[in-house]
Amino acid sequence: MAKLQVAIDLLSTEAALELAAKVAPYVDIIELGTPLIKQEGLKVVTAMKQAHPDKLVFADMKTADTGALEAEMAFKAGADLVTVMGTVDDATVKGAVEAAKKYGKQVVVDTIGVKDRVKRAREVTAFGVAFVELHAGLDEQALPGYSIQKLINEGKEAGVPFSIAGGVNADSIKAVLEAGAVVAVAGSAIYGASDPAKAAEALKAAFK
Ligand SMILES: O=C([C@H](O)CO)[C@H](O)[C@H](O)COP(=O)(O)O
Question: Which residues, if any, are the signal sequence (predicted)?
């Protein structure tokens, strides 16, 4: 069964914990966004795992170098999954995968900036990553004419385990799941909602 991941792009540990407490009943994976980790450090990962030991905690490290080292730092802090950028050297991805094996954890490759996401998704899957995040970041989403449909089409074509991030919301969740995503990532559709718990519950209902 596919999983729902909440991406927390807030900027304090306190706010992240408050949001997670509201939405935890409806989500499978709690993601600490890259800006949040940069602002608060890996202690936000530790705090989240302590508060939600039954959830998978996803540290959106967006690692670009020293794959093994950064993955190990996040796993030691309590992360279950870490991200490595797909645009970087294969050695960085492989290093993170080696660290994940050592800790019994998992690596996800983030495809922001990857020109041919389908090709790269297939390449990195062979290195042993858990799944590939077909991702349009917040800056790309803000460009005129952005549509999540491209990611959905790429997922259908890829033939490897993938998540989709980049505007997953109540309108797009069904198409994301029908495309075969193993994880649907929703950030602003949850943390930006007037009632985040209700928004998460509505998204989760689409999984049935
Ligand atoms: O990963 C993300 C982004 O790079 C900032 O950290 C977002 O969490 C991801 O794009 C999901 O957010 P929404 O697009 O708002 O659903």
Answer: none
By residue count, the chain amounts to 208
Residue to mutate, 61, 146, 188, 203, ligand 1, most ligand atoms under 8 Å from C-beta: 188
pTM of the model: 0.98
Query: Closest ligand 1 atom, CA of 34?
Result: 6
Q: How far is the CA of 194 from the centre of ligand 1 (A)?
A: 18
| Phi, psi for residue 59 in degrees, rounded to 5 | -95, 110
Tell me if residue 106 falls in helix, strand or coil: strand
pLDDT in tens, the chain (208 residues): 999 999 999 999 999 999 999 999 999 999 999 999 999 999 999 999 999 999 999 999 999 999 999 999 999 999 999 999 999 999 999 999 999 999 999 999 999 999 999 999 999 999 999 999 999 999 999 999 999 999 999 999 999 999 999 999 999 999 999 999 999 999 999 999 999 999 999 999 999 8
Backbone φ, ψ for residue 110 (5° rounding):
-95, 125
Q: Which CATH architecture has domain 3-205?
A: Alpha-Beta Barrel (3.20)
